[in-house]
From TrEMBL:
It comes from the Bacteria. The keyword Metal-binding applies. Transmembrane segments: none annotated. The lineage of its organism: Bacteria, Pseudomonadati, Pseudomonadota, Gammaproteobacteria, Oceanospirillales. It holds the Pfam family Metallophos. Coiled coil: none annotated. Keywords: Hydrolase, Iron, Metal-binding. Belongs to the cyclic nucleotide phosphodiesterase class-III family. This is Phosphodiesterase. It comes from Billgrantia ethanolica.
Amino acid sequence: MHKVLWLTDPHLVEPDNAASQAPAEAWQRFRRCLDDIRHDHADAELLVLSGDLVQLNNPGAYALLREALETLHMPYRLLVGNHDDRTALHEAFPHIPMVRGFLQGSDDIGETRLIYLDTQAAQGHYGELCPFRLDWLAAELEAASTRPAAIFLHHPPMAIGVPALDRLKLLESEGLRDLLQSRRAPTQFFCGHVHRNVSGRWCGHPFATLKSTNTQFAFDMQAERLRRCDEEPGYGVLLFDNGEVIVNYVDISTDH
Ligand SMILES: [Fe+2]
């Protein structure tokens, strides 16, 4: 069995960034998650952080994130989200793979291929996959052949029934749908961005999304505007074993 930790959307801020709109608790909550991991899951093989690592316009937070992650002494992979600055991120983490300017790569863990996909749009908070990135994914899946694949991406390609979030999903996901519909081997999506735990099936394959280590968005099937709620932060513990996938969710207390 292979244990992979999954965290998303910490929206970390630079200390003393007066212009930041982000909740001040971002670091405190993120560190609580790391403390929990240190205590209960130090045996994990890998940690994946699926985007929105920092709040918009806080590039100085990447160096602090690196310091924090390296206290775990565990390999990690990072995805880029709509709040991230790809260039600043790569400067702070030059060892994270980049493919022709996009932050994507893959690892084989046991028989499963983990694929990290860059869905950041040139502008805007929704996601996009240009033909280059889609072709790259097709090649990765082809190389995985009949082995299981886990695709990590920041923007979910599916609508989850929350209009304020759904308009910010991966747009023009038809190419991805076509690619995945023809894939017969076990494949699962792991998405960030929505700050909620949601699971389901899309184009024949299961998916999971994950709550933020910071603040959550409300389950509101009516509102046009994003609304935060006071649900607790958390992270995920993924278990991969011979083609089976288990997604465990851990909540973290925000009591002081
Ligand atoms: Fe986010």
